[in-house]
Amino acid sequence: MATAPVMKESPAAGALLRADALAVTYQGRRGGPPARAVDGVDLDVGRGEIVALVGESGCGKTTLARTLLGLVPPTAGRVVFAGEPLGYGARALKAYRRRVQLVLQDPTGALNPRHTVYDAVAEGLRIHGGASDERAAVAEALARAGLRPPERFLLRYPHELSGGQRQRVVIAGALVLRPELLVADEPVASLDASVRGEILALLLSLRDELGLSALVVTHDLGLAWNIADRVAVMYLGRIVEAGPVEEVLSAPRHPYTRALLSVLPDSSAPPVVLTGEPPDPTRVPPGCRFHARCQVLAAAGPVHPEAATACRTRDLPVLPGHGPHTAACHWPTAEP
């Protein structure tokens, strides 16, 4: 019977950002049980690495990303950046957010319609300071984001730009501070299919040319395949499978990952229709938190009663933040 490894590996030497036993709990409604939005997560992002965080809506991936950005303080565990635990004082957070920048999924909502492109990109410099030549820094950021020549865009307003150009402006606003890591929350979800590839290619070029790291939050495993070095699949507040993107997406070990992959347009596997909705985070089920919707358990549970009992009753350990392909699954097929 397969289980996730109990012993954690030490983080990779090149780890830039690390979630260490991270948990975020929200107070329940009307005195009810608390909601465990993030429920014990170890996750590393190495220097010059792109990691995709994948899962359904409501699985906790956006809360995890906001916690890694310092926008939500953890209930337990810690965020470690460049070997130092994140501090939550105003000065520490300001210094941290210069080095770690957020790219939102909706560029229209992220940009003030009354501000020119120049003002939108320069805003970070004006908050954090440190640019001897603001105009040159803004022009360089726009050029790096693919808006060339930058002089054509400086005095334009968001409504004068296409969706792809607006997203490039948002990326330029992050790049102007010369960060070490980007957290991109569904960076192409609001864009037409024709420009999604351009934005993904831009993120890859930034990694290759600047050594920039990125955590890309997405529900789209196809996007993860195209852009990520590693992928972490999240379900109900936990990472349930993680590893190099080629291994995870070519030979998934967790039934949830297999279900997500089965509905991709180019999948050769029959689509898996998961029954019901993800459980309420205020009532996380015992055992494997996916067992109530697991297609493997439903089909083969009577044949393997020991594994079925473990799925329903035995909790699984937190997966290590870095290392080889691992899955939090009691089922024998979790082993390669």
UniProtKB/TrEMBL annotation:
<keyword id="KW-0067">ATP-binding</keyword>
<protein>
    <submittedName>
        <fullName>ABC transporter ATP-binding protein</fullName>
    </submittedName>
</protein>
<dbReference type="Pfam" id="PF08352">
    <property type="entry name" value="oligo_HPY"/>
</dbReference>
<dbReference type="InterPro" id="IPR003593">
    <property type="entry name" value="AAA+_ATPase"/>
</dbReference>
<dbReference type="InterPro" id="IPR003439">
    <property type="entry name" value="ABC_transporter-like_ATP-bd"/>
</dbReference>
<keyword id="KW-0813">Transport</keyword>
<keyword id="KW-0547">Nucleotide-binding</keyword>
<dbReference type="InterPro" id="IPR050319">
    <property type="entry name" value="ABC_transp_ATP-bind"/>
</dbReference>
<dbReference type="Pfam" id="PF00005">
    <property type="entry name" value="ABC_tran"/>
</dbReference>
<dbReference type="InterPro" id="IPR013563">
    <property type="entry name" value="Oligopep_ABC_C"/>
</dbReference>
<feature type="domain" description="ABC transporter">
    <location>
        <begin position="17"/>
        <end position="261"/>
    </location>
</feature>
<dbReference type="InterPro" id="IPR027417">
    <property type="entry name" value="P-loop_NTPase"/>
</dbReference>
<comment type="similarity">
    <text>Belongs to the ABC transporter superfamily.</text>
</comment>
<dbReference type="GO" id="GO:0005524">
    <property type="term" value="F:ATP binding"/>
</dbReference>
<dbReference type="InterPro" id="IPR017871">
    <property type="entry name" value="ABC_transporter-like_CS"/>
</dbReference>
